Every structure is written in structure tokens, then in C-alpha cells.
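sry for the spam today, last one i promise. C-alpha cells for design, 209 residues
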């Protein structure tokens, strides 16, 4: 037992830190700053090294460390799965997946989906109608790949009176796209009313694009 523990004790706190730093310095990690996951793994290595270095003999060495490492592995996998969508969300999803139709066509599609109770499709089509209409009227500059959040921010700078409605419309769109909450008749109505207000809105006096 003492021989086995001695092998484990060789991994001191400093040794664990050195190995973790060497691994994170590997070219495979690229030249960018360590990610949150990388930093978490480094902290984990130091914690395990500290635990191993100071663990009393009666704890049974790997009898305790084995289940602990399994728990840690499960936690790491969960964090990776949970953090990856967060990074995607930060990047955002473009309002238009394909070449946009006319604003009139998007509105007609939104009306059909809303009448059929297909509220998620109604929400996405309605925001696409808003996007195309604002570009056609030169309220915002046409740009491929614009996200709902970016659309709301750019249009709010020119139409400050609708800033709240634009942010709410973008939030509803993002919630529907990411599946955080189901679209409802109410959310489809909010987008439809926003579209109607924006069609009548004009840039505020002295506000540039």
C-alpha cells in the first residue's frame, strides 16, 4: 500500500501545475488565450495534485481517487456540452438562412404560418420581413449574415423610438431559434405588431445611419 501511495505522492502540486502548463502550451492549442474549459482543467489538475499530495494513508489511495476522477470526468463532459452552445449563441444565428425573398413574400409566409398555428415559423418569417423592409428603405445597410441581435442594435440606432420593440423582437426570434421557449400566438402577434410599427416609422431627426 505504501509503495502505491508513494507513486501517487510523486505528483506534487508544483509538478501538476508544470504538467498542465506544458500541455496547455502545446502548439495544438493554438496561439490564442486558454479557454474557460482549459482554465477549468488546469484548476482541476492542481486540485487533484493537492489532494493526492496531502491525502492521509487511511483514505485508501485510488479507492477514493478512482470514483473522484470518474465524477470529475462526467463534470468536464457536461461543461463542454453546456459551454459549446453558449459560444454558438454568442456568435448568433443569421436572420436569413438562404437568399431573402421580398418583404411582401416574407409577410405573406408569416401570415400563413400564423393562421395555421405554426407560430415558430411565423416568428422567423416576420423578422425576415422586418429585415428586408428596413434594408429596402435604407434604414439599415444591406448585409449578409446579420443576426437578430445585430439587426435590433443597428435599427435601434436609427429608430430609437422602437429600440425596446426591436430588442424584444430579437429576443423572441433567438428564443425560438435556440428552442429556449416555444413560440406562441402572443409572440407571433408581438412580431406582427412590431413589423406594422416599423413600416410606418421614420428615422429620428438628426439621426444618421
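last one done:
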Amino acid at each position: 500500500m505504501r509503495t502505491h501511495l508513494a507513486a501517487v505522492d510523486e505528483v506534487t502540486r508544483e509538478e501538476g501545475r508544470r504538467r498542465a502548463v506544458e500541455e496547455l502550451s502545446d502548439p495544438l492549442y493554438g496561439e490564442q488565450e486558454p479557454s474557460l474549459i482549459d482554465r477549468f482543467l488546469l484548476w482541476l489538475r492542481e486540485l487533484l495534485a493537492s489532494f493526492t499530495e496531502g491525502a492521509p494513508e487511511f483514505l485508501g489511495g485510488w479507492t477514493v481517487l478512482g470514483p473522484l476522477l470518474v465524477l470529475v470526468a462526467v463534470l468536464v463532459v457536461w461543461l463542454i456540452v453546456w459551454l459549446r452552445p453558449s459560444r454558438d449563441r454568442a456568435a448568433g444565428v443569421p436572420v436569413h438562412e438562404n437568399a431573402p425573398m421580398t418583404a411582401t413574400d416574407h409577410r405573406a409566409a408569416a401570415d400563413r404560418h400564423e393562421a395555421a398555428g405554426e407560430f415558430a415559423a411565423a416568428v422567423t418569417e416576420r423578422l425576415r420581413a422586418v429585415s428586408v423592409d428596413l434594408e429596402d428603405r435604407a434604414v439599415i445597410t444591406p448585409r449578409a449574415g446579420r443576426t437578430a441581435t445585430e439587426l435590433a442594435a443597428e435599427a435601434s440606432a436609427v429608430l430609437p423610438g422602437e429600440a425596446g420593440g426591436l430588442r424584444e423582437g430579437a429576443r423572441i426570434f433567438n428564443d425560438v431559434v435556440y428552442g429556449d421557449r416555444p413560440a406562441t400566438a402572443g409572440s407571433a402577434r408581438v412580431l406582427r405588431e412590431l413589423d406594422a410599427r416599423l413600416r410606418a416609422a421614420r428615422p429620428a431627426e438628426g439621426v444618421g445611419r
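Residues 2-91 form one domain. ok im logging off now
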